[in-house]
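TICKET: design request
STATUS: open
ATTACHED STRUCTURE:
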């Protein structure tokens, strides 16, 4: 069972006229964390928990591992925050940590995918049971296929398709050129279609 994040502590009382942690911009929030202000890193976690979790889930395909990995990402970020120089956004820096953590995990453990919706924003209110089963099955197939891609192709595909990052942002995350990102994405799509044996939409 996944552990609970250890920094989920009650926020300290705010004095009249004092700016709350939630009101701080990214640079100010990082400074507050480095200064040891209580609750500052909790806000970092709150702001980025969902996106980091989704990134991890796209790599490993099941909730338990994704939860463990996302906690590992924030733990590494907490320990290494002093190395964050602000050259990129905090989310980009967290994605970089996340990709490294996930690639290290999948290198030693083959993902076990779960039959859940691969696209959480799909409107399923009027969807028939048969259509839902087919869509969920398709999602499992796609995640299993993504797991077979080479590491850089997998990371590029996940960041582009599911996290909706631009080629420039992905280049920052992976520490590569925009040209390399475009090439990896092109090859990832081609390999994914070959694995799936179809030219249809990717769920």
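STATUS: resolved
RESOLUTION: sequence designed for all positions
ATTACHED SEQUENCE:
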């Amino acid at each position: 069972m996944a552990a609970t994040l250890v920094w989920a502590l009650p926020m300290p009382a705010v004095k009249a006229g004092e700016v709350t942690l939630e009101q701080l911009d990214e640079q100010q929030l990082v400074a507050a964390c480095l200064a040891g202000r209580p609750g500052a890193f909790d806000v970092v976690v709150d702001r980025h928990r969902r996106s980091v979790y989704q990134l991890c889930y796209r790599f490993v395909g099941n909730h338990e591992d994704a939860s463990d990995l996302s906690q590992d990402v924030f733990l590494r970020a907490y320990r290494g925050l002093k190395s964050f120089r602000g050259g990129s956004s905090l989310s980009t820096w967290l994605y970089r940590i996340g990709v490294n953590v996930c690639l290290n995990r999948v290198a030693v453990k083959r993902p076990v995918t779960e039959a859940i919706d691969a696209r959480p924003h799909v409107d399923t209110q009027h969807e028939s049971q048969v259509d839902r089963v087919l869509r969920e099955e398709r999602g499992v197939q796609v995640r299993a296929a993504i797991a077979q891609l080479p590491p850089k192709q997998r990371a590029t595909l996940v960041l582009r398709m599911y996290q909706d990052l631009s080629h420039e942002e992905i280049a920052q995350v992976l520490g590569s050129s925009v040209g390399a990102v475009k090439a990896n994405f092109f090859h990832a799509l081609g390999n994914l279609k070959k694995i799936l044996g179809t030219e249809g939409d990717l769920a």
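CLOSING REMARK: The helical segments are 26-34, 40-60, 63-80, 90-108, 129-146, 151-162, 167-174, 178-196. The mean pLDDT is 80.
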